[in-house]
Amino acid sequence: MDPTEDTIADLVIAKFDALPVKSKPVVDAYGVSGWVPLSGIVFTNGDGSNAICVALATGMKCLPSIKIPQAHGFVLHDWHAEVLAIRGLNHFLIQECHDLAQSPKSHSPFVRWRDTSELSAYRGLQPFTIRESWKMHMYCSEAPCGDASMELTMDAQPDATPWRHEIIVEEREKLGTTLKGRGFFSELGIVRRKPSRPDSPPTLSKSCSDKLALKQCTSLLSSPASLLICPENAYLNTLILPDSEFVASACDRSFGPAGRMGPVANKIWSGGYSYRPFKTSTTRRNFEHSRRRPDHQGVSPKPSNIAALWTLRQQETLINGVLQGRKQTDVKGASAVCRLKTSKLVMDTLALLAFPFLMDGLKSLSYMDLKRVKMLEDRSKVKQAVKDAALAKQPSFPDHQRPFAPSPSSATTHLFAMADKLRTQQQLEQLQARYVGTGHADTTKFEWTSNIHRDSYASYVGHPPLLEYMAIGMGEPKEKVRAMMIEKMIQPVGKPPEVQD
Questions:
Q1: 150 has pLDDT over 90
Q2: Which of 16, 19, 41, 367 would you label with 259, given CA atoms 20 to 30 Å apart?
Q3: Cβ–Cβ contacts within 10 Å for residue 16, how many?
């Protein structure tokens, strides 16, 4: 009997609770706690007598597209919890393969050597495979971003009615072929980018819903790991979500054969690949640092920029895609699961194996070269076939199967488009009202400099050690300097310029 969903969730949450304090969301100076999604991968054996959490991660950020050229392989592009947990699993499995290759007499409870009878062009030539006795389950404290959570996103709005309209040509050209995060609620069953604030720079990372849907065909193994491990036993069995984060129709549409994955249902490809839909299930357990849990003052928690990664072999704390305390330009901040270190670990393992059909990988100069080796052609074909048939960037439903109602007229289309722009403008105005120093298109030089100086004086007053240091330097009592700073905040750069008629 397999462990229950609650048992699997408890395992992941317990491992997170054991992490150091620096890996967890913090409470800010105003007493507002942070929230972060948690994802973990649990291995269970066939009779359910053993369950082991192999990897877990927290995180909710990704790299803007404008910063990808500066990543150089050591900055993570996407550290959403689901993606980071899968990267951690892959790194752990590659490490297991490396140990087996280094010492053929060594034993791994998770990975084994394949017999020569198992090696073939149809089933793959990888020397290792995950042991057949294991099943893999993933617990997520939040619904995966993208298509599987669109109904939840709509319900969180003041008006939960979908914004029903077709996207006009001008909008398509401006947004590209992949829709931005949470926009255009009426478009369901399509590929989306990671969600973000309206004023944030765009990202090229696809949503977690889309990535998990693709993993049902390519397995949980990444391209580098697929050079070493056969994908046959590397598919996810169950995706477990909290009761409040589960919408059956959304999960069926996003992952199931009755939804957008219908065109690849029952498909089998060479190389050990096939479409294996995972079961979506629910748990009553709730993660302590979930956004659904307000603090003792009834204040909603704020998003945390801290990401954590844990596997059976290592633990890391990350901020902005690199190790905590390191800059994005510092190669010493590279995570163990970044492209640079992953490709190096795989190439070291390939060198130990020295199999003739794996020698292509040793000629690879970069992570991208490693993904293009001949042995991964089957995986590339599967990936492309799924993208073309099921995960097309634009919806291709017949009119009678469209998951949203078409607009009745061109006039209505433009009306809804205008409503979207108005909604976006209102959101921007709310941000500007909350953060006055942000400014806007009509901000004058006087207003801009006034905001800067006013913020500086406010900082001096709000930091007693700094205020005391300045008082000593000025030779004045601390309270007198404080009163002077507060008075200067009224007109920090003098009187406003005269308005000319």
A1: no
A2: 41
A3: 23
Q: How many other C-beta atoms can be found within 10 angstroms of the C-beta atom of residue 478? A: 15
Phi, psi of 179 (to 5 degrees): -70, 150
Q: How far is CA 488 from CA 24, 466, 485, in A?
A: 39, 17, 5
Supply the residues annotated as catalytic. 82
Three-state helix/strand/coil letters over 192-237 = EECCCCCCCCCCCCECHHHHHHHHHHHCCCCHHHHCCEEHHHCCEE
**Burial degree of 134 (CB within 10 A; 0-12, 13-18, 19+):** buried
What kind and span of H or E run contains 386?
Answer: helix 377-389
Confidence of residue 356 (pLDDT cuts 50, 70, 90): low
Closest CA to 27 of 292, 287, 295, 288: 295
pLDDT of 13 = 96
How many Cα atoms sit within 13 Å of 101 on the Cβ side? 22
> Which of 432 and 63 is assigned the larger pLDDT?
63
Angle of helix 208-218 relative to helix 81-102, nearest 10 degrees, comes to 30
CA distance 87 to 336: 10
| Other residues' Cβ atoms within 10 Å of the Cβ of residue 419 | 12
Q: Average pLDDT of the chain? A: 84
- What's the rounded Cα separation, in Å, for the pair 105 and 445? 72
What sign does the dihedral 138-139-144-148 (CA atoms) show?
Answer: positive
- At 39, which helix (H) or strand (E)? strand 38-45
Percent of the chain with pLDDT over 90: 53
Out of 343-357, 387-401, 411-425, pick the least confident: 411-425
Query: What global pTM score does this model have?
Result: 0.77
Neighbours of 14 (CB within 10 A): 11
